[in-house]
Amino acid sequence: MQQLSVIMDALPFILQGAGVSLAIVCFSMGLGLLMGVPMAVGLVYGPAPVRWLIGLYVWFFRGVPILVLMFLFYFGIFDLLDLDLNAISAVSLVLGLTSAAYQSQIFRGAIQSLPQGQLKAARALGMSDRQGIVSIILPQALRLSIPAWSNEYSIILKDSALAYVVGAMDIFTRTHFVASRTYEHLALFINAGVLYFIITLVGVKLLLALEKKVRIPGYTQ
After folding, report:
1. How many domains are contained in the chain?
2. Any domain includes 9
3. What pLDDT score does 30 carry?
4. Neighbours of 111 (CB within 10 A)
5. In a domain, 6, yes or no
6. In the chain, count of helices (H) and strands (E)?
7. Is 31 in contact with 100 (CB distance < 8 Å)?
8. How far apart are CA 151 and CA 129, in angstroms?
9. Splitting the chain (221 residues) into consecutive groups of 10 residues, what average pLDDT does each group show?
10. Of 23, 140, 174, 213, which sits 20 to 30 A from 150 (CA to CA)?
11. Burial of 41 by CB count in 10 Å (0-12 exposed, 13-18 middle, 19+ buried)?
12. Which ranges does the record mark as transmembrane (predicted)?
């Protein structure tokens, strides 16, 4: 009963951290989307120098652990650039830049899964390559990417717990704060795990509903 009492007393404080975690995830996913789509287009349709530069970016952010990136940017690059970012903004930016690398591969795969003749057909109709990509290729690729995008959402949510290392007051940081004072580590971290599970489940369900909404009956792509 003591563990339950501690959880109930700490729950409002920890739930405030859930809002922080969601804000980090939403910003990171949004930045990853805004950067990942143009990068995917560049990887598929861009000239060799563009493909090389994007490939280097993807290689770096996919190859370096998130924890190392957190310290590298928060204590190094941001200071070097004289960027006065708080912990939440810094974590969101690092996760967003990392998500962009992964999302570029999601969208690249979706673009390459489409029939290659579609862009040629767009040219035959008098459309430029840019018009064909924006109006024909990308809408289909974005729709096909939703299942993989929901997986990226789950990954970013779990990675957001690393915000603890720079002091951002998310779910994990607030749980650790309470646990270090009450010594009820097991009960409190089980509670944190349940919160992460619920947020993951709700987000994935929403993306599944979106996938069903944009699905075209009878179309296999």
Report:
1. 1
2. no
3. 94
4. 24
5. no
6. 11, 0
7. yes
8. 31
9. 74 87 93 94 90 94 91 84 82 93 92 79 75 81 85 91 85 88 84 92 89 68 54
10. 174
11. buried
12. 20-44, 56-77, 83-102, 185-208
